[in-house]
Amino acid sequence: MSPNVTTSDPEILENRTLDELKIGDSACLVRQLTEQDIQLFAVMSGDVNPAHVDQEFAHQDIFHKVIAHGMWGGALISNVLGTQLPGPGTIYLSQDLRFERPIGLGDTITITVEVTAKDAEQGRVTLACRCANQDGNTAIEGEATVLAPQEKIRRNRIKLPEVSINHPGSHLRALIESAQAYGPLATAVVHPVDTASLLGALRAAEAGLIEPVLVGPEARIQEAAKTADIDISGFRLEATPHSHAAAERATQLAGAGEVQALMKGSLHTDELMGAALSRQGGLRTERRASHVFIVDVPGFERPVFITDAAINIAPSLDDKKDIVQNAIDLARAVGVTEPKVAVLSAVETVASSMTSTVEAAALAKMADRGQIKGGVVDGPLAFDNAINAEAAKTKGITSSVAGHADILVAPDLEAGNMAAKQLEYMASAKVAGIVMGTRVPIALTSRADDELSRMASGALASHTVAWQQGLKEIADE
After folding, report:
1. Which 8-state DSSP code applies to residue 335?
2. CB atoms closer than 10 angstroms to residue 71
3. Which end of the chain is more exposed for a tag (fewer CB within 10 A), N or C?
4. pLDDT digits (tens, 9 = 90+) for 148-195
5. Which of 200-209, 239-248, 363-372 has the lowest mean pLDDT?
6. At what angle do helices 355-368 and 317-333 cross, to 10 degrees?
7. Is residue 106 situated within a structural domain?
8. CATH of the domain at 335
9. Which domain holds residue 340?
10. Residue 459 lies in a domain
11. Cα–Cα distances in Å, from 24 out to 90, 97, 139, 393, 465?
């Protein structure tokens, strides 16, 4: 190899013109194959061959491991030709490649190009291309022909945008998968007279999450099934004349132990909760009922619970104690061993002029005194320093909760609802939610929710019932 070797400058791109190029000139690039490389290439190309993106399939395939797309190496050869040798101004004319061995996850590949021929009259240059792994074995080799640049070019390297691979709803899908181990939960689906709520129930049933009991006007439910082209003949149907009667009948079924959960269909929340919380035959307990969202934000390392965003408009301190306990119980039900609870306000210090800060401090002390159990509670905390450790550090907050919160307790319903909806519609979060503090959990889905949200809400109910049964068994021993 010639001593005239081109290396990549991290800030400047500078080419070698046709006149400057000599036989034996070379350049190289070293790159380690990561899972993100494979995923990005699959997204860009649309090539989802399971040998590259499906670990289970790949381990049973010929190479017994996930391997790179063949043209990932080809793209790196193009990188060297276009940025180093000859560099900016180079025009690709042809490329032939031979694939000698696969490139696996974690392999470190050295990509080398070397000038082997030069046609000054036509401006063409031929380069040998090779990709070798960390053991020096050739993975890819071939030959490229390019039109070499005629003029000298020196440019600042363009800074590329940051790219991240996100899997929207991955935490919710994991929640659904783990809930399937419990078997289907008998669930009254209340007033499912539109295709969205009916399909949501059907998908949850197909996944083994629920055993639906459809409660509502029979003709409208059948019409929705016909519109969605689904067969509901295998489901129990409790006919009622209207939505209010459906809410009352579903509550009766839960009170009688015929169903273990309720799922909201196409009716208003206050109509369902009015029946569920009725003092005559409702599902009240000694604890205040409250709603808990689980919010799955793409790229965030854990799901976040937000409460209360649907039931208690302006909760008192005593109400908030129950709201916090309900959220802790749900988080524990889905596997968070000791949930970290941030009681939110606009500031991190207690101010008598801002009631939410005083109540947040009181809730933290209640947890210290054992009035709230099963989690670590701190407040007041602002949204940023509740979920971001750097923000908490910058403000000098010393707390095991700050920057690591699992549960965000809003000062009132408006703040909680806006926080959850902002994450859903501006950060592409997937959400699910249920009502806790009632005799059975209530999957309180929105009419705008998709199937994933409805299924995940059913999974939350399943986890909750299984966890409560486990506690009862321990108490009975």
Report:
1. T
2. 16
3. C
4. 999 999 999 999 888 888 888 999 999 999 999 999 999 999 999 999
5. 200-209
6. 60
7. yes
8. 3.40.718.10
9. 286-437
10. no
11. 18, 20, 21, 54, 72
| Residue in this structure with the two tokens 């009240």, named with its chain if needed | 284
224 in a domain, yes or no?
no
- Please check whether residue 156 is in contact with residue 83, taking contact to mean a CB–CB distance below 8 angstroms: no
Q: How far is 330 from 210, CA to CA, in rounded Å?
A: 18
280 CB-contact burial (10 Å; exposed 0-12 / middle 13-18 / buried 19+): exposed
The widest CA-to-CA distance across the chain, in whole angstroms, is 96
Token digits for 439? 């005799």
Contacts of 424 (CB under 8 A, 6+ apart): 295, 430, 431
H/E/C letters for each residue in 173-226?
A: HHHHHHHHHHCCEEEEEECCCCHHHHHHHHHHHHCCCEEEEEEECHHHHHHHHH
Find the length of the chain.
477
CA distances from 53 to 25, 60, 64, 166, 253 (A): 37, 13, 13, 14, 46
Ramachandran angles phi, psi of 467, nearest 5°: -65, -45
**What are the angstrom distances between the C-alpha of 413 and each of 35, 84, 307, 457?**
41, 58, 8, 20
Strand partners of residue 194: none
Q: Domain with 117 in it: what CATH number? A: 3.10.129.10
Provide the β-strand partners of residue 95.
144
Task: Tell me what pLDDT residue 5 has.
Answer: 47
Q: pTM higher than 0.90, yes or no? A: no
> Does some domain include residue 406?
yes
Both tokens assigned to 356: 């939410």
